[in-house]
Amino acid sequence: MTRIIIQNTSILTLDNHDTFFYPGVIEIRDDRIFSIGTWSPDAILSEYGGETRIIDGTDKVVMPGLVDLHFHTSVAKGYGDDLPLWEYLDRIWYPSIRALTPETCRTAALHSYITALKSGTTTVNDMYRHLDSLASAALQTGIRAVISNDIALPEHNLDSVADNVQAYHRNNNLGNGRIKVWLGLEWLPLSDAPLLAEIGKMKKELGTGVHIHLCESRTEIENSIKRFRKRPVDMAYEAGILGPDCVAAHCVHLSDNEIKLLAETGTSVSHNAGSNAKLGNGVARVQDMVKAGINIGLGVDACECHNSVDMFETMKITSYMQRATLEDASLGHPSQILRMGTSHGAKALGIDAGMLVVGKKADVILLDLKKDMMFTPLHKEPEQRRRMLESHLVFGCNGSAVDTVIVDGRIVVEGKKVLGVDQEQARVDMDALFHDLVASMPEVTVDREKGA
Question: Which Pfam family, just one, is annotated for this protein (predicted)?
């Protein structure tokens, strides 16, 4: 049994009552939050039979770990950045992931999970390939991961339902339940109705979830209407894919009826503002989804689509895009955005975390309030301090302020370093992987006048 105590700190619980402690103390026992409250210098620690680690939280803020609700392991960040979505997929994304081996996939996953953890992400919802490799990298780094295959029709040379089912039986619940395996559907243009129905059937048989791209671009919707005479959300609904055990990524171009279907089925949406903007896909109807009661989390998408796995950047972009598009500075309030990045994502994935409450899973991060003066100035009166911290976290800081990361009650990042991993070797291996990958792919040229 292990115990971690973080004392004399600012604790942003992000619970349902906006509870804030300053100065505060939080105690973790094994994988759960045991106690949380106000700290005083003369407090006496209770007796405990196991090892105790005490962390001085002075000039730190403690908050729930971030949940990246739509993530892809990355191999080609910064390559072919000027291509729109469909051309990018055909010319960069699919050739690169088809070329992966289990060994190179593990290298890419290790690098991706290291960078995610270092910026405060404790959970990734990773749709990719070679799930044994993803699980191995997640176990080594200590990140919590929901992993799924890239299922498509056979002619697209990606993954099959059988691949995903086999990976489920090999990897689901590894690492004390820290690794979960869902079914993953690439997107409708690479699918058909029978494949969707097969995924819906297997979801029920396995009792697992589905991670799916829906309504990311206008061309996707046009393709669906042309081939099926139905919109993407309607297709997913009829196949039995939607529900509380489904995360629909993007959902940029939804009709009123599609918003209604997502709300009625309890389907969660991963809003990926940075990716949607960079690829020129548009701005999602976030406010309409919120009004309909849809649970919305946040994701960075592939690092190729956003060039960063930093969820603090994603939170900032999310708020800014809503305010700018709807010309309303009251939207995207930091308190709401922080919950999208934590508890909403945890709810979508069925994880008992996302807020600092006694009994919840101990997925916790500590940020350095002195880092590059990102959090200066900061009020000392507790309620004002809470409000300013929320503002600084969403609008004024980035993941480099993260000092310590705890996942499942275990310290996995300390002093900004991922423990148990050779970060420099991971960087060297990733560069070598990319060099070999590019050599095997057609040269990418971009017409700057036309965009592609």
Answer: Amidohydro_1
Kindly give the pairing relationship between strand 410-414 and strand 179-181: unpaired
Cα distance between residue 336 and residue 391, in whole Å: 11
Q: CA 356, 357, 361, 366: dihedral to nearest 10 degrees?
A: 20
Domain layout of the chain by residue ranges: 2-64+362-418, 66-349
Which among 351, 371, 397 is positioned nearest to 64, based on CA atoms? 351
Residue 389 has phi, psi (to 5 degrees) of -60, -45
Does residue 440 register a pLDDT over 80?
no
Q: For residue 245, what pLDDT is reported?
A: 98
pLDDT in tens, 134-152: 999 999 999 999 999 999 9
**pTM of the complete model beyond 0.90:** yes
Euclidean distance between CA atoms 284 and 257, whole angstroms: 15
The class that CATH gives domain 2-64+362-418 is: mainly beta
Q: Are 214 and 250 in contact (CB under 8 A)?
A: yes
Q: Which of 79, 74, 105 is nearest to 91 (CA)?
A: 79
DSSP string, 346-367: HHHHT-S-SS--TTSB--EEEE
CB 31 within 8 A of CB 43: no
Question: Cβ(212)–Cβ(236) under 8 Å?
Answer: yes
3-state secondary structure of 207: coil
Examine the pLDDT at 451 and tell me if it is beyond 70. no
> For residue 58, what pLDDT is reported?
97
DSSP alpha helix (H) spans, 142-285? 161-171, 193-206, 218-228, 232-238, 256-265, 273-278
Distance of CA 46 to CAs 23, 24, 50, Å?
A: 19, 16, 12
Residue 271's beta-bridge partner residues?
298
Task: Report the helix count and the strand count for the chain, using DSSP H and E.
Answer: 17, 19
pLDDT tens figures, 349-369: 999 999 999 999 999 999 999
In this structure, what token pair is assigned to residue 12?
Answer: 């942003």
User: Does the pLDDT value for residue 196 go beyond 70?
Assistant: yes
